[in-house]
Write a structure and sequence with these properties.
single chain; alpha/beta; Spore Coat Polysaccharide Biosynthesis Protein SpsA, Chain A; seven-stranded mixed sheet; 10 helices; 13 strands; 18% strand; globular
Length: 260
Amino acid sequence: MKSIILVATHKKAPVPSSNLYLPVVVGANKNAVELNRDFARDNSGMNISDKNPYYNELTAIYWAWKNLDDYDWIGLVHYRRYFIGTEYDHDLQTKILSSVDLEKYTSEFDIILPKPRNYFIESNYSHYVHAHHREPIEETKRIIQQYYPQLLDSFNNVLNNTKAHMFNMFIMKKSDFDRYCTFMFDVLSKLETRIDTAGYSTYELRVYGFISELFLDTWINNEHKKHPLKVLELPVKFTEHQNWVIKGAHFLKRKFMPEY
């Protein structure tokens, strides 16, 4: 079994030393990051590197989809977020998923995801519209209804749920990865033609990356209806400091002060 886990990064940062991990510079057309090892770049081969300000880490996913054919399993993590495993990585100073871990898990499970985020007091839809513009998510629903009606119930269930697997982090079989990317990038390309982002802030221009975080559960839940998938949820380690007090304050302001 041949596996690869992409590490999406936009800056110089510590990365795992294991050959299981392939760091990929996103937005590489405009990102002149100085590298201390051989990083891949999302602007080689078939790519959408120019869309990185709008698609976030999806430009690395697209690059892998179009250019990495010689793998049985493909995954994605971030330069500051990793699946926790049993191997201690001295560069990252934490335990991360190892090749040995992955060999074991892939013999027992069909897909590996981060433990879900739970918003508790609001749905994924409510959280999205309190944090972002409403139009993109409503238009996404119309696109799925028109072009992927078989996934509409699954998408609505994800919107109505309080939990979701976030960050676009996953490890899955290449055949599943191909089908997932076909769905995701088709919907996003259609969405690009239907919304006007002229008045969006730099942060909100990342709309396609934000929307895509709701697609993974949508696709998996629909696949599960056709043939049950064994899903393993792993904890995620943040390698940069997270100020949960500030994050929580922002969450509550968006929830109870819509004008915020």
